[in-house]
Amino acid sequence: MTEDDRYTRQRRLREIGDAGQERLFQAHAVVCGREAALLELVYLQRAGVGAVELDSLASPRAFAHEAVFRHEASRRHAAAAWRALRTIVEVVAPGATS
């Protein structure tokens, strides 16, 4: 599988497209915290974010939906996925997040 083929499905999404995927390639993201930070980092890399840095001393963005998850492990995974998605949205469509 070539690198171009890897992101074909994302490019087909009108929310991302070729321009959004190029912004992801050019982006630099910082993953903060320790719990599930590696998972967040992997999500961002697999989405095509060009440079991802890990800052284990910084506090991660608050996850407002913690109470929904009963188990700590699922809460950490959901928080990592949510943070990665928020980063992707901010890169692809700046100003779209509130």
What does this structure look like?
This protein is mainly α. The chain has one domain. The protein has helices spanning 3-6, 8-12, 17-26, 37-47, 72-92, and strands spanning 28-32, 51-55. A two-stranded parallel sheet has the order 1-2. It starts with a helix and ends in a 6-residue tail after the last helix.
Question: What is the string of helix and strand elements?
Answer: HHHEHEH
Number of helices: 5
Describe the global form: globular
Question: Kindly, what is the distance between the CA atoms of the first and last residues, rounded to a whole number of angstroms?
Answer: 37 Å
**Count of individual beta strands:** 2
Beta-strand percentage? 5-15%
Which structural class best describes the helix and strand composition?
mainly alpha
Helical fraction equals 40-55%
Strand order of the largest sheet: 1-2
Can you give the mean pLDDT? Answer: 87
How many strands, which pairing sense, and closed or not: the largest β-sheet? 2 strands, parallel
Which residues form runs of ≥5 with pLDDT under 50?
A: none
Radius of gyration (Å):
14 Å
Whole-number total of structural domains: 1
Summary keywords:
mainly alpha; two-stranded parallel sheet; 5 helices; 2 strands; 52% helix
Question: Secondary-structure map with pairings?
Answer:
Blueprint: H1 3-6, H2 8-12, H3 17-26, E1 28-32, H4 37-47, E2 51-55, H5 72-92
Parallel strand pairs: 1-2
Helix pairs in contact: 4-5
Short summary of the structure?
The chain is mainly α.
